[in-house]
Amino acid sequence: METERYEHHGVTVWVYSDLRGKHRRHCLCFDCQSFYPDVPDMNCKIAEALFRFDRLNGLVTPVYECPEFIKSEFPEYHNWLKNR
Ligand code: SF4
């Protein structure tokens, strides 16, 4: 697979070219009832901790498996998050 570098949240990172910008489509959080990334007090504690770790280290880590997943009852909101 091809790799490339680009600027993400102010950090130059490496990424597989085919996967660049696709983490929202892959990440289970974006279909989860507990995911409120703009509201730290309401957001899932696992997702919030992962987000802080990612920001600290310049990483993007989509969640592929999670024991706490709950299918969203607000698909419009979570689809909006996925596509913004
Ligand atoms: S419960 Fe799991 S899938 Fe849901 S937001 Fe938290 S980490 Fe993501």
Summary tags:
84 residues; alpha+beta; 14% strand; binds iron/sulfur cluster; single chain
Shape: globular
**What series of H and E elements makes up the topology?**
EEHHH
Estimated helix fraction: 25-40%
Provide the low-confidence segments as ranges.
Answer: none
- In total, the number of strands is 2
Bound molecules: iron/sulfur cluster
Number of DSSP helical runs: 3
Radius of gyration: 13 Å
The profile of the biggest β sheet is: 2 strands, antiparallel
Number of domains: 1
Mean pLDDT: 94
Q: Give, in spatial order, the strands making up the sheet with the most strands.
A: 1-2
What does this structure look like?
The protein is of the alpha+beta class. The chain has one domain. The chain contains 3 helices and 2 strands. A two-stranded antiparallel ribbon has the order 1-2. Iron/sulfur cluster binds next to helix 2.
Question: What is the topological layout?
Answer:
Blueprint lengths: L2 E6 L2 E6 L6 H4 L18 H13 L17 H9 L1
Antiparallel strand pairs: 1-2
The structure holds iron/sulfur cluster.
Summarize the structure.
The chain has 84 residues and is of the alpha+beta class. It contains 3 helices and 2 strands, in the order ββααα.
